[in-house]
Amino acid sequence: MSDLREAAMTSKAWPFEEARRLLKRYEKAPPEKGYVLFETGYGPSGLPHIGTFGEVARTTMIRRAFEVISDIPTKLICFSDDLDGMRKVPGNVPNPDMLREHLQRPLTDVPDPFGTHDSFGAHNNAMLNRFLDTFGFEYEFISSTEFYRTGRFDEVLLRAAERYDAVMAVMLKSLRDERRETYSIFLPIHPDTGRVLYVPMKNVDAAKGEITFDDETGREITLPVTGGNVKLQWKPDFGARWAALDVDFEMYGKDHSTNTPIYDGICEILGGRKPEHFTYELFLDANGQKISKTTGNGVSIDEWLTYASTESLSYFMYLKPKTAKRMHFDVIPKAVDEYHQQLRAYPTQDVTQQANNPVWHIHSGDVPASQMVVPFSMLLNLASAAGAEDTETMWGFIKRYAPDASPETHADLDQAAGFAVRYYNDFVKPTKTFRAPDIKERDAIEDLAARLEAHDGPTDDETLQTLVFAVGKDHGFDPLRDWFKALYEVLLGQSQGPRFGGFIALYGVDETVSLIRKALAHELA
Q1: CA–CA gap between residue 122 and residue 133 (Å, rounded)
Q2: pLDDT per residue over 454-489, tens digit each?
Q3: What's the pLDDT band for 291 if we cut at 50, 70, 90?
Q4: Is the pLDDT of residue 518 over 60?
């Protein structure tokens, strides 16, 4: 056994814990299909969003962890529920009037309002594939429409007709009384209008594999359950898909957790083996409310990637998936800096520590070196103090601090400098509030300026931090964090910031003295 595999078998990193649980599924014999199947689902009624990224990223982390501890091949399927009827017209598409006449038709039968694909479903599927490909995910795409209409689902659909009463019994327990009266696991697709119908069944003929129902006009219609003539309601579809594909692992949000017994029960009734599950907590916005793609609160993929790298987002997704987390713009700088801290630690760690390091899971073991010689939080404060509007201004300071660095040799630092300028101008600058120092703070800050002007020793982070520390101590600040808080509020217009010695080293001693003079002359406040 390799050192990594040995470490992975005891690692407390959650992807390895989930991988070991999945491995127990096949401790007696490998899967007959020849591989372990991971699945993620996607509703293509709208654009891919940050939850889609999180689900695929986290599933991929578990998949890669499994591949370390087992030689069984793996596959990841991304399943699009594009046979679902279009329940409402999205508010962010062109030609909404054209779409209204196609309500309740399968998304793959609705014309594409953008005019670029054969259908609205095909358009959104193409966006999903492009979205996943952008992030380098390895997956197989399956369209629900194709799955139903090409017969790949027929065997399980016939079994659902045969075991209709048993599946209905599972569902009826979860429904309100008024819903039970009209509920059916089968949703016929009207042969004339093409609409997905929510109607009760008059008869389910297991021998013929047919259903009989009345449409909205009272006309009696009989359809085969095979060939894409009907689809399953979404909860039965979940379990039936697991049975049809022999899915081994699927994760979903906490809002699905109460449905797990339903999904599992239907899967087993239809002859499948329920998969292993992983339920993750939902993301919250700045006010602690659940993030919703409908209301648009929280942070979108595009918004995160405007201010930080994909890897920082993956790092945020890795952290404590079983804990609800605020996902707002103010979490981005911390995620960036923590990600690079883990990158820097990785080469110094033994194999056990590396297996527990988030960056192993973000990069599937192929971990790059960090070139961020300046933390993102420091870049933000540099942008603030320098009033930077572009990366060229930032590099003027960075080059002095790190002479060997350049945009060509430190691509991630160059990218981060651009992100910092954007983030500063959009989020920090509008909220900056400078204040004047009190008498004690003014004396200390004047003393700091005098000592910096007189300083003729090294100008590295630690030396300058020691100097700043000494000033605060000499002026009786206790605790010393009150001294640093005063520096941040008076000089930078914010209540917290970087190690101040590092900031001086980056911004420059003379420039910091000038900044102090401006603050004391009330040119900032």
Answers
A1: 16
A2: 999 999 999 999 999 999 999 999 999 999 999 999
A3: low
A4: yes
The predicted-structure confidence for 320-343, as pLDDT tens digits, reads as follows 999 988 888 989 999 999 999 999
Residue 55 has what pLDDT? 94
Tokens found for residue 486:
């005063």
Give the 3-state secondary structure of residue 106.
strand
The Cβ-side half-sphere exposure at 85, using a 13 Å CA radius, reads 22
Beta pairing class for 249-253 and 276-280: parallel
Q: Are 346 and 467 in contact (CB under 8 A)?
A: no
3-state secondary structure 412-479: HHHHHHHHHHHHHHHHHHHHCCCCCCCHHHHHHHHHHHHHHHHCCCCCCHHHHHHHHHHHHHHCCCCC
Q: Which pairs count as long-range contacts for 476-484, CB under 8 Å and 24+ apart, including other chains?
A: 476/440, 477/444, 483/444
Q: At what angle do helices 332-345 and 411-423 cross, to 10 degrees?
A: 160
57 pLDDT tier (thresholds 50, 70, 90): very high
Average confidence score pLDDT of the chain: 93
User: From CA 301, how far away is CA 132, in angstroms rounded?
Assistant: 12
The Cα 330–Cα 431 span in angstroms is 12
Model pTM score: 0.92
Report how far residue 65's alpha carbon sits from residue 364's, in angstroms, rounded to the nearest whole number.
Answer: 8
Long-range contacts of 398-406 (CB under 8 A, 24+ apart): 398/373, 398/374, 398/506, 400/508, 401/373, 401/374, 401/505, 401/506, 402/373, 402/374, 405/371, 405/373
Query: With DSSP H G I counted as helix, E B as strand and the rest as coil, what are the percentages for the chain, rounded to 5?
Result: 50, 10, 40
